[in-house]
Amino acid sequence: MIFLNIDKRLEKNGYKIVRDDKYGLEYEKEEPQGYKHKVVISHKASGKHIMQSYTGIDQVVGLTLEEQILFTRKFKQISRAWNRRAKDEQISN
Fold first, then answer.
1. DSSP 8-state class, residue 47
2. Count of CB atoms within 10 A of residue 67's CB?
């Protein structure tokens, strides 16, 4: 699986990016049971970024193995980018 295709594969599984900013990424999927499934990858200044999966009413929701693999790869990809940016900012200061 190529990293450039992660978002396309997530979209194929029903996940759409609803937020992408310096604080993190948020994906959302409308589930057949009538709730919104959210997966959030949050940026932390400490470098210990986090990923959470929950419903719109803040209940924990599991991920399938394929979803776990895709989100873990996206998590690693974006974490590396954030860490590189933080190092570049330290060097320029």
1. S
2. 20
Q: Over the Cα atoms of the chain, what is R_g?
A: 14
Tell me: the pLDDT tens digits for 48-70? Answer: 999 999 997 779 999 999 999 99
Q: What is the pTM of this model?
A: 0.84
* Of 6, 74, 69, nearest in space to 40 by CA: 74
Contact 24, 82 (CB under 8 A): no
Q: How far apart are CA 20 and CA 66, in angstroms?
A: 22
The C-alpha atoms of residue 92 and residue 64 are separated, in whole angstroms, by: 42
